[in-house]
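Incident review: delayed structure delivery

Summary: a single-chain prediction request sat in the queue longer than the usual turnaround. Root cause was a stuck worker, restarted by the on-call engineer. No data loss occurred. The affected request and its eventual output are reproduced below so the record is complete for anyone auditing the incident later.

Affected input:
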Amino acid sequence: MRCAAGSRVLEYSAYVRRITQDRTIRLVATARLRDPVLRKLVEEADLAALAEIEGATSARLRAQAAGAERLDRRELVYGVAHAHFINAAFAYFMPRSLNRFNGPGRGAWYAALALDTCVAEVAFHMERELANIADFNATVDYAELYASFIGDFVDLREAKPRPEFLDADPNKSYAAGNAFADAVRTAGYYGIVYPSARHSGGTCLVALVPHAVQSVAQGAAIRLAWTGRPGPRVSQLGAGFTE
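Output delivered after worker restart:
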């Protein structure tokens, strides 16, 4: 296989597809979606000061105002339903670590075609953090975000041989995945469709540009509870949540 990222896109150009996909699912921790913690502690007259504090600490608001290291503010979306959810996906990122198709300086919108796949993917990353602290006792509530996609994606579900950047081991795959994602975005494609490494038979999708994410809607709230060992208990809390 070629080493240059641009050559890699050419290598997989046969897998570029015009995708029309309704109702993909993304899970987001509900803590991100609630009003600021201080909101109930201030008077109406103090809301402007609270907004200023939030603006100084919110990666999304900072990105909307001035962009981020690898994200131009003009790429973000405005004036559409749930634009803040879309922008947050690209504005929030781990400052010193990689995900499969994004790293420091720029986020991405990860989704799946089925809830079971979402749960497996989210649980994997959460369990890496729980393993780091050697404590598998945690309860996290997530919210479903539905989104639709229409556009040109690199669809790797049938790619042979399986690309090394889809390997289940992050140490073997994430750096190469980031380089490939950069090349895909530079080539003008919206993102990547790929088989899940965490859920056999599952399909994941990553949107690499904000305007690719369309028709965002709220779904149910899902609770993942770990009780001393890997493998969370999954329960549905209700149909909907508060922004």
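Verification: The two ends are 46 Å apart (CA to CA).
Action items: add queue-age alerting; document worker restart procedure.
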